[in-house]
## 1
Amino acid sequence: MSNADFVRYNMSCIRKDKEGVRLSNTRILPVLPLLVLLCLWLPATVMADHEVPPPVPLQPIIDRMAEGEALRLADQTYQGPVTIQKAVSIEGTGGAKLLNDTSKSAVTVEADGARLQGFQITHNGNGDAAAVEIRADRVNVSQLAIRTNGYGILLRDANHAVLNDNDISWFEADSGHPENKGNGIDLYSSNHNLILDNRIAYMKDAIYLEKGRNETVKGNRVSHSRYGIHLMYIDDSQVTDNTGDYNFTGAMVMVVSNATVSDNSFRRQSGNVNSQGILLYDVRKSRIERNALEGNRVGVYMENAAENRISDNDFIRNFIGIQMIRSKANMIRHNVFAANVIEASEQESGSNRLTGNYWDSFQGLDVTNDGISEMPYSIRPFYQNVIARNSAYQLFFQSPGMNFLSDMFAGGDQAAKDVAPLMNMESRTEAGNGRRTEDSSAAAAAGWALLVAATSIMILGGIRK
Amino acid sequence: MNAKRFWMPIAALTLGALVMSGCGAQKYEARPINEAVDICAVCNMQVKDDAFATQLTMADGKNYKFDDIGCMEQWEREHEKEKLGMDFVRDYNDKTWIERDKATYVHDASIRTPMAYGVISFKDKTSAEEFVAKEGAGKIMSASELENHDWKQNKDMMMQHGEGGAEGMKGMGGHQQEQSDHK
């Protein structure tokens, strides 16, 4: 009998009592409290008979396994921590649970080619240990459900691992103080790893990669963490088709060259005063393409970034669409800038080439009727430069004086300008990984409802007169 | 009555002058780190309230915080023409703020710091020596020796693992070159 069954049984007891009261006369009434008490007391006694069996230590079972063998976990609780030193496979069907209360990692993998699949891990130790710690090559970790009080999955000098379809989250759904938590996936000094389709929430950095090459981060969902995907000193890597919501920063790309950040969706990164969709710091020769950056404080923030191609992205409803500081020789083309408070700003930068973008606040002039404005569109950096020195001047945002001064300083040769801005949002493929935000449709519905309401009030009001 | 009226402004002026002269000998103090809003003035990462955090106050009173000593050194090199008030680092063990020039430093490629410069700071030489003895690695530097330190981010650690070592090294050189071009 499961817990749910007890509840059901209990409920039926009470229901029967009530029927009894209704059907018979008041003679039964004095007995009723006793019956109810019995019903309440019963489950406790039965529980004592069916006590949860103590966790089964897993290490002795693994020690008995031969190289290459596969272990099928039963749907019960096992006790960690365990160390795997043979190329074995440990599989469950989702119901098995590994419990670890020590400060060691719940599972430490030291054998090349080992495999973990389809079970739950509850890692209660805090500190630098993790639910899974990989110190070997070609390790495969899939379909694990990890709740951790430390880190999720650690990779240390581990190459060619595949981390696929795992669920990783902090032991409680609390997004406060992410800096005091561990990272979801934490890679250090490891190359050629695949991180695919994982769901990570409420951690410090959902996916943190430091010192590695040829990493692939694809199709992951990261949310409620400090940085969704944090790359440090990672060259020649791919970050594609990921979704980030409610993080301080969606993708933090730092000291990286030859990376591809494409087809990601970073939305609603605005909870922190310093948040942004994508941050590029000291990034070179990389491609930032077809990303959807919506409702963030800053869509793309770049500093010391050079020779990157930023194309076909959607910058929608951000406070600042794209912010460039000390960045040069970047190509910014075929992006859509719509409903941002400040579309683009550039400070201490130069030689960035802007062409063929769509700016919704721009009134162009298309004489040749080719869909491209003959008038260039200049970025006005004046306001940004003023508030960079003294943030109190933000009080003058959109004030007539500030607009006047911005106009005066616009149009100089130094200011960045889109030489061929688009007249219309061209019919190009949508950026991001396909999942449009629900907000826009809800807003449209609300708009229609308001319109109908207003019209009916006007008509009804008119008739009464 | 008249005399009193006459002396009041003079007294106020004298008092004012005293207060002003007190301000003249400005004393700089380290400010607490607020993890919710403080980001590194160089690399933009969150400044965690830990032993790696550093900060400086310019003569005009503007305060900048950094997540790594290397970031502060880079900032000071880029702004060497402006007047610095005081710069602070932290003791690795108890996180007390120390003036940069009074601290002792330890560098080793294996020390992990937020931006991988691998330099940590101590309030005295003894605790630095204790750290090196315990870890079995690390080069001890005084503040003046730190001036000549080669601030290399430890990106090349991965090259020790053999992959594309020579190519990576070349990439680093080019990268450093580009960075100095920026200034």
Note: The first helix of chain B runs from residue 2 to 24.
## 2
Amino acid sequence: MTGERNALAVIPAFNEEAHVADVVSGVRAQGLPLDVLVVDDGSDDGTARAAAEAGAHVVSLPFNVGYGGALQTGFKYALRNGYEYLVHLDGDGQHDPASIAPLLEAVRNGGTDIVVGSRFLQDPDYRCLFARRIGIAIFRLIARLTTGRAITDPTSGFQALNRKAFAFYSREYPSDFPDTDVIITSHRAHFEIREIPVKIHPSVSGRSMHSGLAPFYYVFKMFLSICVTLLRKRPKKEE
Amino acid sequence: MLFRQKIFAITAALFLLVLIFELVRRRKLKEEYSWLWLLTGVSILVLTLWYDLLLMLTSAIGAKVATTTLFIAAVMYLILITLHFSVRISSLSDQVKKLVQELAILKAEKGDIHN
């Protein structure tokens, strides 16, 4: 941590050589007092070098751990280096860095531990695949029933956290894709969660993590993990 | 049970038990994993020497012939041991994840970015 910069932007990236530099410069161009960390998730292209050249701190995982595992590496880094606030966004350029300021502001103002950037709040007809929309609707309903509040975009990779929240996540976080289960767990650990609208560009690299048979597995995995999350003992906020 | 069958079963059970002890002695097999295997060897031995127990178990589970009981036991045992391995693999992959995360952070702190 350097001087006044008590916030860290974490960008997990897997084979994003083409976009990661733009994302890093985009974040730095916001002129916010924050450091930028790119977690290179075992890429076999020049992701780490491109990120470092664009001025980011880089942590390189020796092999691909998964999106959640890479993000958790960022949480651990932030914890270790004494950051107070953290914002994470994807390395493919779909998250507009202009939304970082409002996200961080919301978590800095206190009262909220986790601020989720939602693509749906502002732009209700944000276009995505039909199957994905149904999936999102179901999990939104589950999140609503279990946490008692509306979370429109639980899969959002654009979130701001305070230290208490990322300390909690650095202990327990899914390796693959954090989702509704994480929101429910955090809610059960008495974290204050809020959503604010963010601007999202359709994925620049055009790759979707939900294709082929993956959506079926995804729905199955989410149901299972939500069920066991609810059956687990209430997690403790601090240890 | 035929005498020859008995001899064969006892030999097999003893061979298994000796093998397990030897593996533990040479530290090729951890004690915590050996008990399930030892249990198998001992069960074979007990059921061979005490055939009536096998017959009692057979009628208790409603099977017609003793071989069914043995097959069911063997299949259940194999399922349990693979499940046990899945549990171990899950915890090992979690440990590996934690290790590489720590390693990556420490490497970054040393300013060691070679790609």
Note: The helical segments of chain B are 3-25, 31-49, 51-61, 66-109.
